[in-house]
Write a structure and sequence with these properties.
Layout lengths: L1 H7 L6 H4 L25 H4 L14 H34 L11 H10 L4 E8 L2 E8 L10 H36 L1 H11 L3 H45 L2
Antiparallel strand pairs: 1-2
Helix pairs in contact: 4-6, 4-8, 6-8, 7-8
Length: 246
């Protein structure tokens, strides 16, 4: 049935197929730089060009369409979690007016939070396994006043940074396997597409779709590696901060 449907629509290319597969979001158009460059977390916000959702073209081989779909879905999830991590860090930075050079570094912010509240609270970054949090202990144990709103806000943002960084790394591991199979199987997939094509015209269209998909898979690989690397650097810095406060 799928082959029949692909044949029926082989006379034209859909509007979606004419468009770039990595669609930039409105906030992505002003970002500069590339994930091809290996940078530390201290320059990440400036050098990683963020992209929108990844959309795959159909090649009318159910197994391959599913593999491309799984890869795109996983990449989109990783992209969203990376974006969330960046937002949390920026929110934390803005709330305490730290890191004016627009980086993803946490050290200065945690230090400023600690200094601002040291009269009433002992603030530290704690790390446990693959999670870290902003720990707050009252200097006066009898003090029952609620935490200041901006300190509660900082705790929530740090919690979000930790969760998103962890998810970014996890999705990156899965993506590595999905992308690896697709790039290794180029010739095999080309033969499958050829076998599924009923006409010369359809073969040409589906082969073009396959090539475009693989092109975008290679681009997604670069971004995914960059996202995973920077999330890992956030964890490394968090561990260093936590160790400094022991």
């Amino acid at each position: 049935m799928l082959r029949f449907l692909c044949c029926c629509f082989s006379s034209g290319v859909s509007a979606d197929e004419r468009q770039p597969l990595l669609h930039p979001g409105p906030s992505d158009l002003n970002e500069a730089g590339s994930a091809r460059q290996s940078r530390s977390a201290h320059s990440d916000a400036q050098t990683v060009k963020r992209i929108g959702r990844l959309v795959m073209r159909r090649v009318c081989v159910p197994e391959l369409d599913q593999r491309f779909s799984d890869m795109a879905e996983t990449f989109n999830e990783q992209h969203e979690r990376y974006e969330a991590m960046v937002r949390n860090i920026r929110n934390l930075r803005q709330s305490y007016s730290c890191n004016h050079n627009d980086t993803l570094a946490l050290t200065e912010c945690v230090g400023m939070i600690r200094d601002e509240h040291e009269a009433k609270y002992r603030v530290s970054l704690q790390i446990k396994g693959y999670e870290f949090s902003l720990n707050v202990v009252r200097v006066d144990e009898s003090d029952e006043e609620p935490l200041p709103p901006h300190l509660q806000f900082a705790q929530n943002e740090v919690k979000g940074i930790s969760a998103s960084a962890k998810a970014t790394i996890s999705k990156g591991t899965t993506l590595q396997e999905l992308i690896g199979w697709l790039l290794r199987s180029k010739d095999q997939m080309a033969e499958q597409v050829k076998g599924a094509s009923a006409t010369y015209q359809e073969h040409g269209r589906l082969s073009e779709n396959l090539e475009e998909n693989l092109k975008e898979v290679r681009r997604a690989k670069e971004f995914a590696l960059g996202y995973r690397q920077r999330a890992g650097e956030v964890f490394t810095e968090a561990a260093q901060i936590a160790g400094a406060y022991l």
